[in-house]
Request: fold
Amino acid sequence: MKYVLGTVVVFLAMLACLAGATDIRALVLQRCQGCHDLAKNCDVASSDRAWWKGMVERMVAYQPELLTPVEVDAVSRYLAQESRRKELCQQ
Ligand code: HEC
Reply:
C-alpha cells in the first residue's frame, strides 16, 4: 500500500512539473516576441543559469511590466535548460 501511495505521489509531482513547464513555454511564446523573435533565445548556447537570469532581468528592464520577479526566475530556469530551449525552438 505504501508503494502504491508513493508511486501516485511521484506521478502527481511529475504531472505538476510538466504542467509548469508548459506554462512557462507559453509565457515565453507570449511575452518574448514583442521586440525580437525567438531566434534570439535559440541562438544562445549557454546553459548558465546566472547568465540567463541576468539576461531576462535585462529584458524586464527594457519593459518593466513584462514579467513578475517569480516569472523571471521561472523563465530563466526554463531557458537555461538545453532540452527546453530545443523544445521551444523546434517550431
Ligand atoms: C522591450 C523589448 C524586448 C522584449 C519584450 C524582450 N526583449 Fe530580448 N532583447 C531586446 C533587445 C533590445 C535585445 C538586444 C540588446 C540586449 O541584448 O540587451 C534583446 C536581446 C535578447 C537576447 C540576446 C542576448 C545576448 O546577449 O545574446 C535574448 C536571449 C533575449 N533578448 C531573450 C528575451 C526573452 C527570453 C524575452 C522574454 C522574457 C525577451 N527577450 C523580451 C528587447 C526585448
